[in-house]
Amino acid sequence: MAKRLNNVKKERGEEIYKLLKQDHNEFKAMLKKLEKMGNSGEKEDLFIQFRQELLAHAKAEEQVFYDRLKKAEKTKKLVLEGAEEHAIAEHLVKKLSTIGMDEDRWPSLLKVLRESLEHHIEDEEGDVFPKAKKIFSKDEALMIGQEFSEEKQRRLQGTEYEVDEKEDVYSSEEDTLGFQQ
Ligand SMILES: [Fe+2]
Question: 21 CA to middle of ligand 1, Å?
Answer without folding.
Answer: 10
